[in-house]
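Researcher:
Attend to token order:
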Amino acid sequence: MKGVCAFLLILVFLGFSLSGCATTASSQMKIAEGLLSDLKAQGGEKLVPYEYGSAETFLEAARREYDQSDYNSAKEFADRSTAASEQGLAEIKKKK
């Protein structure tokens, strides 16, 4: 009986741990989507094509990883997308 209880506790702990990763990845992906949208609205496709393309590619990779339940990788790609969008927005600001 102790073994069953211990096993159930481990499953509950893992369930909470994994759901936290999914939430973190999902929220970071939403941030990345918002920044990419801002970058596009400011003409990022033409003004900073490298940063725009990088941000878009990393966000697509994040979505793929998220769909495959690889939440840590999804968050990492979303972080990279966010950084690329932020860099692009900074470059646009410098040009204006």
